[in-house]
């Protein structure tokens, strides 16, 4: 589900876009190729870093020692 703040942002985005006058942006033409490549590379690095952090945080920590008891409602303990 989308948080309410994001929905509000998406609803107000067309209003903000309608208030901009054409040509009011100075120097906002197409991006140069080195800048575009740098942005894509930075995005890939950050995405990879997020995946690695999530993987490291979600991996199992190691199995607890088996004490011979059967735990019915505890997955991984019996």
Short description:
By secondary structure, the chain is mainly α. The chain has helices at 4-19, 33-58. 54% of the residues lie in helices and 0% in strands.
Features:
54% helix, 78 residues, mainly alpha, elongated, 2 helices
| pLDDT averaged residue by residue | 75
Number of strands: 0
Number of helices: 2
Q: Give the helix proportion (percent range).
A: 40-55%
**Helix-strand category:** mainly alpha
Q: How much of the sequence is in beta strands?
A: under 5%
Give the biggest sheet. Answer: none
Family: Belongs to the DAP10 family.
Transmembrane segments: 35-58
Pfam families: DAP10 (PF07213)
Main location: membrane
Structure overview:
- It contains two helices and no strands.
- With 78 residues, the protein is mainly alpha-helical.
- The longest helix has 26 residues.
- The two termini are 36 Å apart.
- 0% of the residues are buried.
- Keywords: Disulfide bond, Glycoprotein, Membrane, Phosphoprotein, Signal, Transmembrane, Transmembrane helix.
- Belongs to the DAP10 family.
- Pfam families: DAP10 (PF07213).
